[in-house]
Every structure is written in C-alpha cells, then in structure tokens.
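Field reference: sequence -> structure
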Amino acid sequence: MVQPWKLLVYLAADNTLYNDAQVSLHQITAASLFSDVETIVQIDGPSAQLSSRFRCHQGKRELIWEAPDNYTGDRSIRLTEFLKASITAPTEPKRVFLVLWGHGAGLDHVYFYDTPNQQDNAPAESSPAAPLNVNCISFWIRTFWLQSGQHSE
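Structure field:
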C-alpha cells in the first residue's frame, strides 16, 4: 500500500506578500476540493498577531490555530512551531511534502547550516530540538521587478 501524502505549506508573508498569500490560501483551499491529501497551511502576516494555521479539505478551510497575543516575531521559531504542530510524530504514517513560500530570503539559516549562528546570527533555539521527518521540500519564490512593474513566479 502506498503511503498517503500530507502537504504542509508555510506562507512567509510577514512583508509585502501578505495580499498574495491570501490569494494563495484561497487557491489552496479551492484545490483541496479535488484531493484527499491532508493539507495544513500556516500564513505568517506582517505582524506576529496575523499568524494563523488552517486545515484545507474538500474545498473548505478550517481555522485550527491563531497566534496568541505577544507571539514571537522570529520567523525561524514560527516555522519550527508550525512543523512540530503539523507533523504529529517522528514516525508520521504519511509522507510529508513541505512548501516554503515567500521572497526566498531569511529561512536558510534555520535548517540548512550546521550551526544556527553561522548566518544572520540566528539564535540557537531556532533550530528544531529533534529531527522532523519531511520527505520532500519545495521552495515557491516570488520575485518582483519594481521598476518595470513585472513579476515572475
């Protein structure tokens, strides 16, 4: 039997991409109508209080978490907490596909360097305490050419 997939989407929109992230959340929700894949989306908005997590299934989205007052502004901690909450156990019975969505800067020091402080002086506590089982990872990077008014995806 083939293991089912769990799709995790982290929308790093704590910048100028917040409106685009709302559109992407709507598109992900609409696409879930035709899929049995468990889909969890976290959108991190321009302020820490605009962070929320949704379960998208059968064309509907369910709010499953909202940032508490005084939630951290540290994106690396937000991403780590999203992964820990969304991957239920190190032996997750589903294959996990993680999508990191955003401008493409600021997340590399969280998981890709041997020491957390190697880049951007990231705090040591931003690294996950235990390895998480992610089977596949994708980056969706949006870039803008402000002078020409064009954009690419």
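Note: The chain has a mean pLDDT of 75.
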